[in-house]
Design brief:
The complex is a heterotetramer, with two copies of chain A and two copies of chain B. By secondary structure, chain A is α/β, with parallel strands linked by helices. Helices cover 35% and strands 11% of the residues of chain A. Chain B has a seven-stranded mixed beta sheet, sandwiched between helices. In chain B, strands 11-12-15-14 form a four-stranded antiparallel beta sheet, with helices on one face. In chain B, helix 6 (134-149) crosses helix 7 (162-172) and helix 12 packs across helix 13. The longest helix of chain B has 38 residues, at 329-366. Classes of the chains: A alpha/beta, B alpha/beta. The interface between B and C is medium-sized, with 20 and 23 residues. Bound molecules: pyridoxal-5'-phosphate (2 copies).
Chain lengths: 502, 441, 502, 441
């Protein structure tokens, strides 16, 4: 195998570690409580039948073992801190350390959500300032920070549309969704009680305007559009699209997952979007944390404002801030308290560190990086659509597939080259898609290493397809049997079920 | 900008390679009239020191260092420092969802351990990788129950957290899924007679919370019998997870929705927290959210992967069990570390201290005010009724840098001047005595 | 190679990373300053000829690249957090995280050493409390926290002896040092202007009492003794040793590097020691940090107190604390300010977390672990001395050497088995020494894995010596050419000297 | 005890294997009469929360959040947060000295970068891996000079930090190495005439500090010429490393001893800091302390190792260049990260801000007090002479939570009511104005 060509990574000794339950033994402790300063009680007396005697298989280990357990496990992960993470649609950008520091400041980290407003002005000011920034960034009129993630924001946004349309006399039945859309879009429409009608894209990878015009009618609440779409293409006819919807009384929902292509360069509010969500854990750099937490603020136009979830933040005459619960037309709450406040803190810190000039430069670099990769790889991989790319580029494995090498194989082989794979086989409109989003956080050196790796793999796919099909070869575990995992699921450890220990 | 790893000459070189004269060429797909040529109205670029100063000032105007007697769905417990030192490792907090298991075993194994511990504590057979929080988790539990039973309505106890019930209302109305509410008794528990009336043969499930919003521990077994006798499922919501250290788990439930915040997650003005759903094995394919499962690699070596994805939106789209994608993985990892630190003995001992603190406090408060809902056991919260408007009491305490209980009039007007007090291991006897005195004036 | 037997570790993909200078390019920045709030100045005007125009090859990189640079490099290190670190004489024990947290509390981390005493009571109280704890632990009468490390403490201690002897009329000429002593002992004696006289150890690996008696005379200032000594053996005749020295007017200095074997079980002050140093970075768990910082407090008997370095801490009548600079007999300062205060904080936090019971248990576990290893391995490796072991055990490679496998080779092979090697070829009295100190921080599971590895290597040494001689086989770099490094030293990067990039 | 990974049964099993009935058998080598059977007089075992509370209270009685105008060898600069997040990785802070290079390349490469940056900044050819601090580093520099020259005495300027000179005195007296002191002029610089008198043909080296203790920048070239003309070496001590961002490096020196605290190391009430020695290539074998060198492995791959160990105590024992073993590696790594964050442009810009702040402050102070030592350039410190006793001025400022300058009477009585003020990027114009007003009363 051509490991000599691999410049970016090598192999190094790495610690094994079993499950924490396999380390447990009675009498080990990692805690000690302060002495009880009130009279001790007898739980049995106080709780009677409700008392619990035993905590089953909960672990008993020491602090030293906990540090090693999680430290060792952490070394099995790839992360932005280790290298490029070009997952299309995920915007894996640098997570600044200062954001983590400020989010842990005592007054913010230890604030109880129900503490009186007048001693919560710091937190309220942070939320208000972030909201104001996001409104100018999106060009919208009103916003809620309550949704916990993008999909949660989608639901909130669609409910705003539904509430508005109901107030107009008819909530309508269907939502139009392009075939290129992310899975959460149709899933969200369904949750909100709408049927999903599919909208084809045209040869340029954009919404087919004539199809839209013919499909749009009074049964349709609106369109859920990602812009730039999941092919990384900006919907050039966006204004036209909005008009068609508006003419028939429908609304335009924009999935803002790809705002990293637009911040500071254009504003959805200016090109006809009625309501949209943002992913603070994408565009605004709050860490993904291995799958979450996120935050999915929803911004909307004036006509939808009165339906926003409660509470909203309002500025009082005396300049102090407070929560407004008195919103009779609100769609209601989508989450307890006020959303993932800790993510609001981080997103605002990101905006302040960047300023307007930094945000613009960030967008420009993100688009520059994607187009550089596109240019460098278009001779090696098939480009299904040749419309201009914004922040990400989507190739297809067409050429490699002839040798039986699929996008998933190329992805696994990238691991040997020291990279995290791109997004595999999404969007669905592209057979065998390679969806690559570098973000602005990659240096030219890192991009060139990635390009070299992709070119080398293209050669390997031609000369030695087996090598690629069996990748990765450099990881502590080889390809895992996902079918077996799904066939009879083992979803928790059990004492008897001690399995092949490492 | 200091985060951007490019020099001006890097940018020029790249533009040359691409064949563009200026960066703006790359933005031509955006129609000219929508291009933004002014600066955004956001703060100017700040030095790191300025950013830190800004948030430190906000932090200092945000009740830093107050004693707090608030619970009501968010609990103040001590957070062992190892939690932050471990989750601050970039390998955990700057990783994405573990879609590539060969380079994500760290996250996957941690979540597998989370799922296992949640099962152990709740008495359920399977648990998922997390939900947004306890409120959305409860809503998803009801929707799940409908999928399982094919029935189209539910009953929720009024003693479920009021904001949970608001969230449930927002979710389920659009599914054509009416939710009836049932009242509570003098002892603070579910009114079984009322519940029996409310359950119909279209009732998919009964939702209760235990310990409930008043801190009272419900008779889960009795409610389960009633629900099951009518062919409905029982969903139990747990807002104060630490109670499971000393309170019998709701093993009779069919679905448990737990908020994990008590397990080492900062109060953080309400979030991020982490919900989780647990259930019986037979219902797993109707469960929303990600699941980590054990498997093996080519050489038979144990490994973990995301599994049963056919329930999820990225595969099933509009037919998915839920639209959830990003969850609360890092918070679940925090909870996993917390549960590991305290473990089998510590959770019990710690829960015991909470029980003792609340019992002592209730005793002290009873001398001056009326402690409601006698006759049923509580964990670390209790309701006190006073002559005086609780707001006045709390204002007095604020001057002593003590944040008093949660005023109930907004959600339970029928209780008059009542508020909900919480005592954890963090509340000293001194604070409790001061607060108790204030109540009695 | 028998990698299948290796239970503890495997290999995993690992990122390469060049030198930071190789990433630098003009115009990249990782900083931004706050706007200057005073009039700008012209450095040339203010500094004239002293102005500097250029900073040569200092790097220019972004924050993202810095995070990756150091994160990637960190993954090339072994550490306590990853596994057992049985370096004899180094006491590599668990470094509790809470110690790091409290050391960073603002009032402690940002305190200026010259800020007024009355607003420094917190720091002074910490130093005083630590001093009091260490005095009871050692059984001594007085202490200084000023020395920055063990060797620095040795110098301080020997200077106390010298000052005392001078005050008795004669500083004397020589210091006795056993052949088993650590290199810093003779080096220290030399720095203090003493000649070193070697003291042989006997067949039990202890001080040869008769030799001592015959060598001791009025030219000899005293003896520097490590106890337990570097063989892990407690000097059973310690009282006798002290008597012999004292009878001839000499003093007994104890190198406290091995106090982890004694804390809570016996006190040097009780068995005749006149002066000693402690290594807070060993016995009291302050982190080694890849080589430092350390802290080497020196405790002594009343007769030496007046010679302690200045300032000392004194409790004032009003209960407040202050520094006492008025010490005419002091040997002077050994360091500016008051020593490595940050290490004092951590050591006190360690003592508080343990309490008297925890400290005793810690010592017992440390000794238990060493004796367990000794018992389990004595059939595979040669035990040069059979006196009882305390906190560490020293084997010799005698048996393996017959096959040409040296202690250094066995050490390198341990790396493949997922362990950090023990201390190699020290103490010098043992040819081909394997000096193993597990500390109390190792679980039975980890010890058994270590024992299995050592046994497997013993087998490999017999069956396949080449395999062991060429180890390690699992690391990102193989054995490095240390001779080449010393022959023509390259001690800094130079622009032209860009070398074999990885 | 929560750090100990053993259960009681583990201990029993191990004792059984060893063949002991009780743990005390293992302590029998310690003569019975010296065995301790009572508990140590140390605090009882505390909960982590109690430990944190104890130190938080100490921290709060330790001038947290005061504005500070003290320099005098310890400088208050902003610390970029990446420093602590990176050195807090266990792989860095829980590793030992990199004696096993195959599993220590992280530490070794970081130190190699440190050595390189120190060379770039100081203008020297080689630098070591660190010394304890600037004071012991200065002492080692003198002893090194004696080894190089074979001469047995030295001259140190009185403008070298007084505590450095105390430390030097402690070290060198026992080497039979007398150190003469030479005075300073009206402009705060070394008195060249006096220096010339003090240098003899047994003078191994002249030690100066620049910027010196008064903040004055010395004429290094001139001092070097004089020293060299007498066959002595020049050793330059640098206490405020940031000055190198804008002040000409002491390239004419033979040995530079630098305190790196300004480079991202917390003030920390005086330590840990990190000294470092830099010199000419030809003197490297006389240099104390560890050195990291570049080499390659079997496959020609670049790697780093500790090298030239034959200078050190573990090889040379009593003939070693020094007794130093443990150094300040982690602090050197902090400094490396700091130097990398600011880099080529940032150190210059930051030093420029310090220069501007001090210049502005000196101007303001001059309106009310007398700023001494005119006519020679300064960096970020200056000496002010006042009518009033500086202690009284400082006491007044303390009420405003401002810590005033360093009172010089103790070390320089000849200057009367004088104190040394330092202004860095951390001192706001507002603070400076307030302080300047206080001085002038
Ligand atoms: C285009 C798009 N829409 C929606 C989502 C869902 O966002 P979240 O995962 O935050 O719920 C994603 C996330 O991957 C996405 O890429
Ligand atoms: C026995 C002994 N003495 C002295 C020392 C020197 O201590 P330090 O490295 O802290 O200077 C050591 C350190 O390894 C040692 O093991």
């Amino acid at each position: 195998m051509s490991d000599r060509d691999i410049k970016k990574a090598t192999r190094h000794v790495n610690q094994n570690e079993g499950l924490i339950f396999e380390r447990s033994s009675p009498g080990k402790k990692a805690y000690r409580l302060a002495p009880l300063d009130v009279p001790a009680i007898d739980p049995r007396k106080l709780l009677g039948a409700a008392v619990r005697e035993d905590l089953g298989n909960m672990p008993e280990v020491s602090e030293m073992e906990i540090i090693r357990h999680f430290t060792r496990m952490s070394t099995w992960n790839y992360a932005i801190d280790l290298g490029m993470y070009p997952l299309g649609s995920c915007t894996m950008k640098y997570n600044a350390r200062v954001n983590e520091v400020v989010a842990r400041l005592r007054g913010l980290a230890e604030a109880h959500p129900y503490q009186p407003e007048r001693i919560s002005q710091g937190a309220l000011r942070i939320m208000k300032t972030l909201a104001d920034c996001l409104l100018d960034i999106t060009g919208m009129d009103a916003i809620t920070l309550q949704p916990a993630a993008g999909a949660h924001g989608e639901m909130t946004g669609i409910l705003l549309m539904k509430a508005y349309l109901s107030s107009m006399g008819n909530p309508r039945k269907k939502i139009l969704i392009p075939d290129s859309a992310h899975g959460t879009n149709p899933a969200t429409a369904a949750i909100c009680g709408y049927a999903v009608e599919n909208l084809k894209s045209n040869a340029q990878g954009m919404v087919d305007i004539s199809a839209l015009a013919s499909q749009m009618n009074e049964d349709i609440a609106g369109l859920m559009l990602t812009n730039p779409n999941t092919l990384g293409i900006f919907e050039h006819e966006i204004a036209k699209i909005a008009d068609i919807l508006h003419q028939k009384g429908g609304l335009l929902y924009m999935d803002g997952a790809n705002m990293n292509a637009l911040v500071g360069k254009t504003r959805p509010g200016d090109f006809g979007v009625d309501v949209m969500h943002l992913n603070l854990h994408k565009t605004f750099s709050t860490p993904h944390g291995g799958g979450g937490p996120g935050s999915g603020p929803v911004a909307c136009k004036k006509i939808l404002e009165r339906f926003l979830p409660k509470p909203t933040i309002l500025e009082k005459p005396d300049g102090t801030l407070g929560f407004d619960y008195n919103r009779p037309d609100s769609v209601g709450r989508v989450r307890m308290f006020y959303g993932n406040f800790g993510m609001h803190v981080r997103a605002l810190a990101y905006i302040m560190a960047n300023g307007y000039d930094g945000l613009r430069q960030t967008t420009e670099d993100a688009v520059l990086n994607a187009n550089y990769i596109r240019k460098m790889l278009e001779s090696d991989y098939t480009l299904p659509y040749n419309s201009g790319s914004m922040h990400e580029v989507v190739f297809s494995d067409q050429r490699q597939a002839q040798k039986g090498v699929k996008t998933g194989d190329i992805a696994k082989r990238l691991i040997d080259y020291g990279f995290h794979p791109y997004t595999v086989s999404f969007p669905l409109v592209v057979p065998g898609a390679l969806m690559i989003e570098p973000t602005e956080s990659e240096s030219l050196e890192e991009l060139d290493l990635f390009i070299d790796a992709m070119k080398a793999i293209a050669r390997e796919a031609a000369d030695d397809p087996e090598l690629v099909r069996n990748a990765p070869h450099s990881t502590r575990v080889s390809r895992l049997d996902e079918t077996a995992a799904a066939r009879k699921p083992v979803l928790r450890w059990k004492p008897q079920a001690k399995s092949v220990s490492e | 900008m200091r985060y951007l790893p490019k020099s001006p000459s890097d940018r020029e070189q790249m533009l040359r390679e691409i064949g563009c004269k200026s960066i703006d060429e790359l933005f031509e797909p955006i129609p000219e009239q929508y291009r933004l040529y002014r600066d955004l109205k956001v703060p100017r670029q700040m030095a790191e020191s300025e950013v830190v100063d800004y948030f430190r000032e906000r932090s200092e105007t945000n009740a830093a260092g107050y004693a707090v007697f608030l619970g009501a769905g968010a609990y103040h417990h001590y957070r062992p420092v190892v939690i932050d030192s471990l989750i601050s490792r970039g390998e955990f907090f700057t990783a994405y969802t573990p879609y590539q298991p060969e380079i994500a075993q760290g996250t996957l194994q941690a979540i597998f351990e989370f799922q296992t511990m949640v099962c152990e504590l709740t008495g359920m057979e399977v648990a998922n990788a997390s939900m947004y929080d306890g409120s959305t988790g409860a809503a998803e539990a009801l929707m799940m129950a409908c999928r399982v039973t094919g029935r189209k309505s539910a009953v929720a106890a009024r003693t479920v957290h009021p904001e949970y019930r608001e969230v449930i209302h927002t979710y389920v109305q659009h599914q054509g899924l009416p939710v009836a509410e049932c009242g509570y008794l003098e002892n603070g528990r579910v009114d079984m007679a009322d519940l029996e009336k409310k359950i119909t043969d279209d009732t998919a499930c009964v939702l209760i919370q235990s310990p409930n919003f008043f801190g009272t521990i419900e008779d889960v077994a009795a409610v389960a019998d009633l629900a099951h006798s009518k062919g409905a499922l029982l969903a139990v919501s747990i807002a104060e997870a630490l109670s499971l250290g000393i309170v019998r788990p709701p093993t009779e439930a069919d679905i448990v929705s737990m908020e994990s915040q008590s397990f080492g997650v900062p109060l953080g003005f309400g979030g991020p927290y982490a919900g989780v759903l647990a259930t019986k094995e037979k219902f797993v394919r109707q469960m929303p959210g990600r699941l980590v499962g054990e498997t093996h690699d080519r050489n038979g070596k144990r490994g973990f992967v995301l599994t049963l994805a056919t329930r999820e939106q990225h595969i099933r789209r509009e037919k998915a069990t839920s639209n959830i994608c990003t969850n609360q993985a890092l918070i679940a990892t925090m909870a996993t570390i917390y549960m590991t630190v305290y473990g089998r003995e510590g959770l019990k001992e710690l829960a015991g201290q909470n029980l003792a603190k609340a019992a002592y406090a209730a005793g002290e408060f009873a001398k001056k005010g009326k402690v409601l809902f006698p006759g049923a056991p509580r964990f670390n919260e209790f309701v006190v009724q006073t002559q005086e408007d609780p707001h006045d009491i709390n204002n007095r305490l604020l001057e002593k840098r003590i944040i008093g209980g949660f005023t109930l009039s907004k959600f339970y007007p029928e209780l008059g001047n009542a508020s909900l007090w919480c005592c954890t291991e963090m509340n000293t006897k001194g604070e409790i005595d001061t607060a108790a005195k204030a109540v009695g004036r």
